[in-house]
Each structure stands twice: as C-alpha cells, then as structure tokens.
Fold Transcriptional regulator.
Amino acid sequence: MEVARPVIALGRDYSDGHVIAPHHHRRDQLLYGATGVVMVATGQGAWVMPPERGMWIPAGIVHDVRIMGTVRMRSLYIEPGVIKAMSGHCQVLGITPLMRSLLAEAVMVPAEYDEQGRDGALMALIQHEVPLLPVLPLSLPLPASRALAQLCRAFLLDPTPHTTIDGWSAAIGLSRRTFTRLFRKETGLSFVAWRQQACVMAALPRLAAGHPVTAVAIDLGYDNPAAFTSMFKRILGTPPAAYIQRER
C-alpha cells in the first residue's frame, strides 16, 4: 500500500460474520460495499453501511469492522490532505452511479499506475467526486465513559425498545438524574433518542436482507409493527418498506 500515488484502490470479498479487528490506516479510506451490510465502530461511535453505500474513515482513526452477509468490499486509500473538503470524522456516504463505476474501474488499476495516463485521470476524477457524495444519517455516537460504552455496545448486539433508563442507571450505580445528564453530555442525545436510532441501525441489515418489516419489528421487541414503522420514519424520513425499495 506504500506506493507514491495519491490514491490507490483495493478489492476484497468477505463472508458473513467476518470481523476485522481494531486497526487504523495511514491514509484516509473510502470503504464501499457493493453487497451486504458493514458495521464500523470506533471509540466515538458506530456506523451502519447498507449495500451500495460508502464510508469515509479519516487517517489514524482506530476502527473495527463487522460483516453481515457476503460483502464485496472495494476501498480507496487516499493520501491525507489530497481531498481537503472531507470531514475529519467518520461518515456514511451515498454512492452515486458515477462513483460506483469509478470504484469498479479503480480496483483494476495497478498500484503504480501512470499518473499522466488514463489510470491517472481516473484517480484524479475520483478525487473530485468524493467530496460531492451525500452524507447519510446512519451514525450512532458512543459515550466515552467505559461503563456506559459497554452497555451501549452490548445493546447494539441485542437491541430492544424495552430497555429503560432505570435499568441502565442501576447497572452502573448511578441515580436516574445523574445517568440522564451523563448520557446526554457524552452522546449529544437523550437515552430514548439514542435507543431508537440504535434500533433503526439494527433493523437496516435485516431489511436489506429481505426480511419482512413485521418480522423485523417483532425481532426487535416491538409489540406493534406500526410503532416501529413510525419510529423508523421519524428518524430516516420514510417508512421502512419505502426506504428499502428506494435503496434497491
């Protein structure tokens, strides 16, 4: 990967359940999954990347990756500072048809490509297109507090709308009032808002895999699928069935 080129591209396929241990890159990374769902977690938050979406991971950020379904991953590794308009934080991005085509071509380009030829022009166009990709609201902040972060990570693996403030505050030995203040301070969200966003993130891989909305709602612990649909629409702006149809 250490070649004297501003952008390089690599492709690799992963099977369902694969976990990439915490690591970081010297370069900025644009991660793209043509199929399957990818969850990325750092010390600051978690992100879900549905099929045919991308994720911007700035250089130096330690992150782990969880694979859901078979994922055809295509990644760009970009020298820091080459794309100055990008955020210094992780973000899930929409991938345009043009960018999708550029990624498919980029992984076929040799690492030491001719910067003055066709391959160099391709990589230069990528540098112009990446800052234009839309940011998607598929992130979930994680608290810095160790005990609180452990509860949040455990919740992401087994989410339910029935988890309560009283249960969590008792689990880490805080009063309800102190817990509420700490949670909002460290995540920027109320406990209820965070819990709802976590449930939406947990639902996305299942919906993308073709599971019925009613089944997903029940699996997440919702007694009434309409309540799940209402919550999903409030967060992502569209009902789950319409969202998945649009993503396809």
User: Anything to note?
Assistant: The mean pLDDT is 91. The chain has two domains: 7-136, 142-247.
